Amino acid sequence: MFKLNKMTDYAVVMMADMARMTDDMRTAPQLAEATGVPLPTVSKLLKNLANAGLMQSQRGASGGYSLSRAPEDISVAEIIAAVEGPIALTACVDGSPDQCGVETICAMRGNWDKVNRAVRGALEQVTLADMMVSAFEFGIPAPAERAGAAS
Amino acid sequence: MFKLNKMTDYAVVMMADMARMTDDMRTAPQLAEATGVPLPTVSKLLKNLANAGLMQSQRGASGGYSLSRAPEDISVAEIIAAVEGPIALTACVDGSPDQCGVETICAMRGNWDKVNRAVRGALEQVTLADMMVSAFEFGIPAPAERAGAAS
DNA sequence: TCAAAAGGTACCAGATTAGTACTGATTGCG
DNA sequence: CGCAATCAGTACTAATCTGGTACCTTTTGA
Lengths: 151, 151
Known about the structure:
The structure is a homodimer.
Chain A: H1 6-19, H2 28-35, H3 39-51, E1 55-58, E2 64-67, H4 76-84, H5 103-125, H6 128-136, H7 143-148
Antiparallel strand pairs in A: 1-2
Chain A binds a DNA duplex through residues 5-7, 27-29, 38, 40-41, 43-44, 46-47, 50, 57-65.
């Protein structure tokens, strides 16, 4: 299905949630409360996002996290990369030299790079700001509507 | 990581292999031999590809499979869709009504559709013919080359 | 009628993921 | 100074998913 990890889904939701209140810092428990994602998971995700430079963290009492950039400047590609590692469709294309024992297959691996580039390019076009638009500006689509097409 | 299933990888390899000899029909055992992919797996994949209309199957003795279209007319998107189901990055976007119990998350699900469309569009640009080019025309890229770059 | 090949279903083992728990490090505040 | 709140990191477990296998049925040409 090509589905991305639930983690990435969470990450985008969390960042979108933070994007709505950029002024103040938010703690992991606050975000867990706001999104409904279990706290340990939120904490882990925030750590990854901070390491990737998408968030700034402030340690100590009254610390917390905040977006390091404007939502328009954060692409979905970056979020995915932060949570799941570099965006690549096959296991064989990055780093690991010889884990695929089948020659005929490996002969084609280089071509997956085209696909990777295409996908990465597409994901870089979509920003965090894009992900917020309809939900918070145009209202949430009615449940009946979602049930038919996309829930 | 965003990696696609090994199945899809196999599928592309198999189809590319078949594309090189469109004249005659090929059987599952032949393809398994040629690609090094275990026979039962090949068989399962061929079935899916045939159901998706990417291949034509001929039952009975001296039967087999053949591509139903020219390699230039088969997109990677189609192959992925045939093997892994419809291309959608989240589990929640197609069909299933209420499997995500978190409201805040679901409020944003509609926006993943943008990402899905972007990715699907990108994958539709890459054809099976594209996947064959360098491997069989320009030669296989050196392992050292791949190890360094090629994200 | 037989054998070869596709079509289908069910199942198992290994790998991966999501989630939890625990411990350590940093910093603001009383 | 020391406590408490918060981030940081590691290790572990349970559950899901994937890749692969086995077995049987159906079709069809010789």
